[in-house]
Amino acid sequence: MSSIPSSLVSSAGLVLGYKVARDTGDRQLGGAVLAAAGLGAFALWKRDAGPLTASLLTAAYVGAFGGSHPLAKKIGAWPSVATVTAAMGTASLIFGARKR
Q1: Most buried residue among 11, 27, 43, 96 by CB atoms closer than 10 A?
Q2: How far is the CA of 60 from the CAs of 11, 30, 54, in angstroms?
Q3: Do 51 and 42 form a contact (C-beta atoms < 8 A)?
Q4: Can you give the pTM of this predicted structure?
Q5: What are the tens digits of pLDDT across the range 10-50?
């Protein structure tokens, strides 16, 4: 059975959450997009790698979101979003893979 990769869900959540907040001017709406993707990614990580790994990756996801704000002050908004998204996507690929 194929499914959407957790790395895609977590990456999309970070990028689309920022884009929605920026384009609409509604930070809460962007946060809702971020949270919905985070919940989806958590479910995939839990299924594929177990609850502990899912919890740790979710903490990393929230940390990536939080860390993007101070990073944006140094390198700009979109470069910051791209950086934390790449890091989160990589972590998801490495640690969130299906158990074998």
Answers
A1: 96
A2: 12, 18, 10
A3: no
A4: 0.91
A5: 999 999 999 999 999 999 999 999 999 999 999 999 999 99
